[in-house]
Amino acid sequence: MIEIMAQGTLKPGCGETFEQLAHELVEKTRQEPGCISYQLCKDLSDSNTYAFLETWQDSSAIDAHNQTSHFTSIVPRFESLFTGPMEVKHYKIIE
User: Fold this and answer.
1) pLDDT of residue 84 exceeding 80
2) What does the pLDDT read at residue 66?
3) Is-contact 50 43, C-beta < 8 A?
4) Which of 8, 39, 76, 92 is buried most deeply by CB count within 10 Å?
């Protein structure tokens, strides 16, 4: 399994717009084959910092996710809301 953490800081005043878009992305992504978990989290010490915590069956499920219409239509809209690019890290789960 593969865990992804994608984290970024929003520009002030962009939280509501981001959360609306992100909730749609989360809802649709959770229905995808190979998606084990997909969560939106908000930093406890900085209300403008968010992270997606994702668990995927394998890299082919991630590749398929990155090509879905909801991913390709929603994620590019995040760019104008964040102070810079999201930091994305991939981790292999060791069992």
Assistant:
1) yes
2) 97
3) yes
4) 8
DSSP sequence for 20-46: HHHHHHHHHHTTSTTEEEEEEEE-SS-
Residue 91 DSSP SS3: strand
Q: Which domain holds residue 27?
A: 2-92
Check if the beta carbon of residue 53 is closer than 8 Å to that of residue 91. no
CATH code, 42: 3.30.70.100
> Are 24 and 71 contacting, i.e. CB atoms less than 8 angstroms apart?
no
Say how many domains are in the chain.
1
In the chain the first and final C-alpha atoms are separated, in Å, by 9
Which residues on neighbouring strands pair with residue 52, listed in sequence order? 6, 40
Q: What is the DSSP letter of 57?
A: S
C-beta of residue 57 within 8 angstroms of C-beta of residue 1: yes
What is the chain's alpha carbon radius of gyration, rounded to the nearest angstrom?
A: 13
* 60, 2 contact by CB (below 8 A): no
